[in-house]
Design a protein that fits this description.
single chain, 512 residues, mainly alpha, 63% helix, rod-shaped
């Protein structure tokens, strides 16, 4: 018996299985002759040989011949046993034509027999997992569906009773099923050459097995959908390149670079950013980054309407990193909505770094002056423009002038007094200016120096060094309610029902 065992195990050929069985049949059976510890040990060795030969026979049946010595040497090696099971299933999966479902089920049963007889170092769960993984990676839609029957496809699924044996049919756990599906789908995805590659359909089929679609599965499905968006925008990349791209925002930039009008498809670009998981799971950051790109592209083509729309979205979301593009639009002279430009500059000043405050304040001050110019021009000549200035009639003019009067008044005249005075005199002043429309209009258009307004407005406020009562100095009760238009005697003929102020030479000398 010892000699027979040594002869069989020393043979390294994989085509001697029949001779090994012939030698086994020549050995005495257990129970014949005297029983000693040595004979019992020899019979145990023979029984083990019989199991090893049966495993070798199963391997040969499925086209994976191995020497008997190989089975004996690997029976306690978990790693080698695992690799052997994988080679067995993958070899079956590569057969052409594809094997039937019945053949696959026979293979599973043979694997379980091998595990029980020889490869006890493996757990039976491992056999099911290896078998299911091989089905998923077999490049066959039918086999992928068969793999779905071997798995828990949702977290709420339970083992169903088998109709043939009346006991629960084993299925791979939900967590392991998700892991296997992801591995198989990624393998198909990475090997694809385009969205229309057959491997991409196989990847999608694998992912659709998990019916409750956890986040990891959804991310893979979204990545496949993203390939379609990229193709629509004209970006040609291998699927593997898309997966390996660490800066997903660069893919959005590539889309914008393909065609000058792509920035107008904001909804589709934001959808692509969601599919690509730009900025990870931070949706606000993702939207902000994409909108900034859209604003920059719109500004480069002077599309102020689109730029304004996206800047308003950024401001509404409070995305502070957008201060720079907001300031760019706010300082764009070609954008004529001064009110919106003022809001953009205010947002930029709120969120900009300290180093940018000075420059932005200067630009904002210049914009404020421009708004004031247009407001005054609109009040004097409503028919000549000013449609982009947000005004509300005389009250807006009154407010604008009061602000200037209050900021320029060196004699601390109260704002309420200045406002009251201007309110009663504005209507008369407007009539005077209307009588000299041509001259005044020419003068207003000719003056471009901002300081001209500051100098000119000094003539519309109380005289320096005098209180409000000094300006309208007169007898007791004369024009005390300021109901009449006060003026110099020189202008008396131009104003209906005027109040002619008594101006002394002392006051005239101070004015000059």
């Amino acid at each position: 018996m010892i000699t027979a065992l040594e002869c069989i195990y020393s043979c390294e050929r994989d085509d001697q299985l029949a001779l090994c069985y012939d030698i086994l049949e020549c050995l005495p059976q257990r129970g014949y002759g005297p029983e000693t510890d040595k004979t019992n040990t020899l019979h145990d060795d023979v029984d083990e040989l019989e199991r090893i030969l049966s495993v070798s026979e199963l391997l040969e049946k499925h086209g994976l011949q191995k020497p008997v010595s190989f089975v004996k040497d690997t029976k306690n090696n978990v790693e080698e046993a695992w690799k052997l099971m994988i080679r067995l299933t993958r070899h079956t999966g590569r057969k052409q034509p594809s094997v039937s479902e019945t053949h696959w089920k026979e293979l599973l049963q043979d694997m379980l027999d091998m595990q029980q007889k020889v490869y006890t170092c493996l757990h039976s769960d491992s056999c099911y997992e290896i078998f299911t993984e091989s089905l998923l990676c077999s490049s066959s839609i039918d086999n992928i569906h068969l793999a779905g029957q071997m798995m828990h496809c949702s977290i709420w699924s339970v083992d169903l009773p088998s109709s043939s044996k009346g006991k629960p049919q084993y299925r791979v756990s939900y967590a392991k099923s998700v892991e296997l599906v992801l591995a198989a789908s990624r393998e198909y995805f990475n090997s694809s050459t385009s969205l229309t590659d057959i491997c991409m359909d196989l990847a999608r089929c694998c992912l659709q097995l998990i019916v409750d679609c956890p986040s990891a599965i959804q991310e893979e499905l979204d990545l496949i959908r993203a390939l379609g968006y990229l193709e629509e925008f004209g970006v040609k990349m291998l699927p593997l390149q898309v997966r390996l791209c660490s800066d997903r925002l660069s893919l959005i930039k590539d889309c914008l670079a393909q065609m000058s009008t792509n920035y107008k498809q904001s909804a589709k670009l934001l959808g692509l950013a969601n599919l690509l998981r730009v900025a990870g799971d931070d949706q606000m950051e993702r939207k902000g980054q994409v909108l900034i790109l859209l604003v920059e592209q719109a500004l480069s083509f002077q599309d102020y309407k689109a730029a304004s729309m996206h800047c308003q979205e950024l401001m509404a979301a409070g995305y502070s990193k957008s201060w720079e593009v907001c300031s760019q639009l706010g300082q764009s002279e070609g954008y004529h909505d001064l009110g919106m430009r003022q809001e953009l500059m205010a947002f930029a000043l709120t969120h900009c770094p300290p180093g940018a405050i000075e420059a932005l304040l200067g630009a904002s001050s210049s914009l404020q002056t421009q708004i004031l110019y247009q407001t005054v021009n609109y009040q004097f000549f409503p028919s000549e423009g000013g449609e982009n200035v947000n005004t509300s009639g005389p009250s807006s003019l009154k407010l604008a002038f009061v602000c200037w009067i209050c900021s320029q008044d060196e004699t601390n005249v109260s704002s309420s007094q200045s406002a009251d005075l201007l309110y009663w005199t504005t209507s008369k002043t407007m009539k005077v200016l209307s009588n000299t429309t041509v001259t005044t209009k020419a003068m207003l258009h000719a003056v471009s120096d901002r300081q001209w307004w500051i100098r000119s407005l000094t003539y519309l406020r109380p005289l320096h060094g005098h209180e409000f009562g000094d300006v309208l100095e007169g007898g007791p009760g004369e024009n005390s309610t300021v109901e009449k238009q006060g003026c110099h005697p020189f202008y008396e003929s131009l104003i209906a029902d005027p109040y002619v102020a008594e101006v002394s030479l002392r006051k005239l000398s101070k004015v000059s």
